[in-house]
What we know:
Blueprint: H1 2-7, H2 47-68, H3 76-103, H4 115-145
Helix pairs in contact: 2-3, 3-4
Amino acid sequence: MSGTAATHTGAQQRVVGLAPTPTPTPTPSPSSSALGSGGFPGPSPTDDEQTFDEAATSRNSLASQLTAMNTSALPADMVQDLASAWQASAEADEDFYSWASDEVGDCTPDDSGDPNLQAATGPDDNATTYKQDFAAAWDPIASQYGLTQYQWNQL
């Protein structure tokens, strides 16, 4: 599952270059830990589950913070791409959480038939597209004003 988690590195709190760069979410390991901040029900999750739980919670928080920010100086479609990226990422992370839960104690190598893994594919693909669109629109603005530029997979 760490390959999937690498696609969803920790949600970044650097909306339009105004917030500090956060520490990335750690790569999951197979040990157990306490329930993540998102509060998904069930037994104590594995680190894989907790990583996806925390990522979903963080991305939902970032999307909420973005809507509260004054972004009027930026192109509206660019801001919407970022909000949509974080919302789609959160949805994918919730599905990945459920997939990780399904795999606890019954992990089948290369099991692509799990319905929760399949459910994550659409939102994950959408998030990637939105992130790529945002980065393509943001980087010229950032370059012009001396702000930090981002690769799509840093968002």
